Amino acid sequence: MRADARRNYDRLLAEADVAFREHGTDTSLEAVARRAGVAVGTLYGHFPNRRALVSALLRERNEALFAFGERLLAGVDAGRALREWISAVVDHATTYRGLAALLADGIDDAASELHASCARMADIGDRVLAAAREAGVVRREVTGTDVLAVMNAVAWTREHASTEQADRLLAFTVDGMVTRRLPGRVSAT
Amino acid sequence: MRADARRNYDRLLAEADVAFREHGTDTSLEAVARRAGVAVGTLYGHFPNRRALVSALLRERNEALFAFGERLLAGVDAGRALREWISAVVDHATTYRGLAALLADGIDDAASELHASCARMADIGDRVLAAAREAGVVRREVTGTDVLAVMNAVAWTREHASTEQADRLLAFTVDGMVTRRLPGRVSAT
DNA sequence: ACCTGAACACCGTTCAAGT
DNA sequence: ACCTGAACACCGTTCAAGT
């Protein structure tokens, strides 16, 4: 990669991060290019579409998330691992407004640049869930896609209501998935 | 209202319904006007913005929903009433793709054309919830906004995953909100 | 090998001019 | 009282022409 290309690539990523943080993933790509001091064509040269840009921005963050998941799997408390995994993914899906929708759609669309990381997330989720099931802490009918569905729904609720409200929703749902329940109190997440 | 104005108004509503059903609430208003055989300015004359158009389309549907809610309140089984109310609102919020987001945002935005109907929905929800609480079938910490949050989250999940998946999510969440639980089975909704 | 920027097709919204 | 359609400002995406 040529030195100037590298510089443009980095600038585009940096400005995209700022814009996504501020206006969500639906922000204008033209504006991103403008703020990066680059022609639109340059942006499209590096990132064929919006998802590719999002995907590139999430790269390191994804690695950290997956590593965290593996660490949870190596731990002992399967019930706690499930809760913490869900929380971690929700946090991740909340990085930019609009990201929850991209991720939810990415899992079903093999052509999406986000598909690989979605699949990886699903895989870790399956294993965390399997461990929790084996430990007898989740109901047997809970599936991996159930877990994905809660995570996305809760992330979306953070965008459209509040973090607090989303966490309450999460608490009730996890409680409905869990085998035992503390009497009279929503279980902590 | 002049006769031609009335005709344009009706045509716009009809075409908007078709377009919203097909492409969601984010569809092009220019295209709606075009298909209605009317200039864009005419559309804006009748409906100052997208929400006003959605709101007008939902009018009768809203009335039916509210009437159903009142009927539920007059019934006897408070637990069943809560479940049915949630289901009914989820169905309603699923009329057009993108509607769940509009409704979720509408409750907090007093200036939104959808705010009044959102408030009405919230009010009925509060009363249904109060009855369920009095009957001892829901946990005491469940709030009216918790109920709103589930409904919106589940409606959104219908858009981005599937009706089946959304209904599973709903079942788990309601189960987490409910006082008693059938052993080993997700309760029906 | 990469960048530029004009080109095309589309959109939301407003408003002077018409009837 | 209502409608028209041009006008303005914006956007996504492509691609011939440059370096």
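qc> Chain B touches chain A at residues 101, 104-105, 139-143, 145-146, 149-150, 152-154, 156-157, 160-161, 165-166, 168-169, 171-177, 181, 184-186 (CB under 8 Å).
qc> done
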